Amino acid sequence: MQDAGSSVEGVFINLERAPERRAAMDRQLADIRLPYAIERFAAIDGSREPGRPEGLRPGQYGCWLSHLGALEQSMSNRRHLHVMEDDAVLSSKLALLPEALGALASDLGAGWDILYLDATLVEIADMYQMFEWARQARAKGLVDVHGIPAGFTVYGMLSYVVNSGRKKHLRDFLRSYLHAGVPVDNVVASGIQKGEIKAYVTAPFLTTGSDASMVSTLGYEGADGFLAWFLFRRLCFFDLNEAAAAGLTARIADLTRDLSRAQGIFGALCAHRVAKWPNSRFPPRVGRS
Asked: What is the DSSP letter of 258?
């Protein structure tokens, strides 16, 4: 029987000027011992490359070229490609990825393009759905895989898997937008919404961002909005134990300190609604006598 790990290859994208991030990734990979190999992919420095589209920072252009380059490097083989950025935090459950991919293939054949192992969700309805998916799976001690609805807005390229049979499709799709002047994750998000890319997501997330990701090598730092989305990703990470949850609580308290009383009450009511009536709907029931 073929080893499940042999169906997957992995890379993490890392700039030469970020050796500390490379060392952190190497330590995690040594500790987890995944059933498939993950190698370093030398990130492309966008400030040194010609043809940068107007509207993209050098770091964003380098991100584009690096993700595209990692995909093109993998075109010659028939393995699924797991791509990570070098600020990822890995769950021990990541070792189950080959099995999850096998189940996905059994259900869908070649009918998927990308499996997100982490995602930045910014819309309330999307966050609610992801939280519920993660809650249900965590209660069973499982990692589930869900199709991403076309109505979702999914950003981020921290960690994802490309279907071995759909590499060319994704490569051609990305190349067609390379000079559009839009960040690569925005292009993929748009492709999902338009039905040009069929995407799935693990629940809970099998990877999440490290604190280092709050100071981006793309050339900008996150403000409160980025911090809130970052903390939500941590909330939906598989390895959410009591200590990690306590740490999130402290950071959330600091983040919400400047909210008005009314906004704070509204947030608490939303939390109560999510906890007490998950996935419930209350349509009007009108009958005729």
From this structure: T
DSSP track, 210-227: -GGGGB-TTS-B--HHHH
163 token code pair:
């279907």
- pTM for the full model? 0.91
* Phi and psi based region of residue 93 (left: phi greater than 0; alpha: psi -120 to 50; beta: remaining): alpha
Distance CA 251, CA 282 (A): 33
DSSP 101-161: HHHHHHHHTT--SEEESS-EE-SHHHHHHHHHHHHHHHHHT--EEEEPPTT--EE--SEEE
Instruction: Give one word for 252, left, alpha or beta, with left for phi > 0 and alpha for psi -120 to 50.
Output: alpha
Q: Is 225 exposed, middle or buried (0-12, 13-18, 19+ CB in 10 A)?
A: exposed
Do the Cβ atoms of 14 and 22 come closer than 8 Å? yes
Rg over alpha carbons for the chain, rounded to the nearest Å, is 20
**Rounded Cα–Cα distance for residues 284 and 50 (Å):** 59
Return d(Cα 138, Cα 247) in angstroms, integer: 19
Q: What is the pLDDT of residues 220-279, one digit of tens each?
A: 455 566 788 899 999 999 998 888 888 888 888 888 888 898 998 988 898 898 888 877
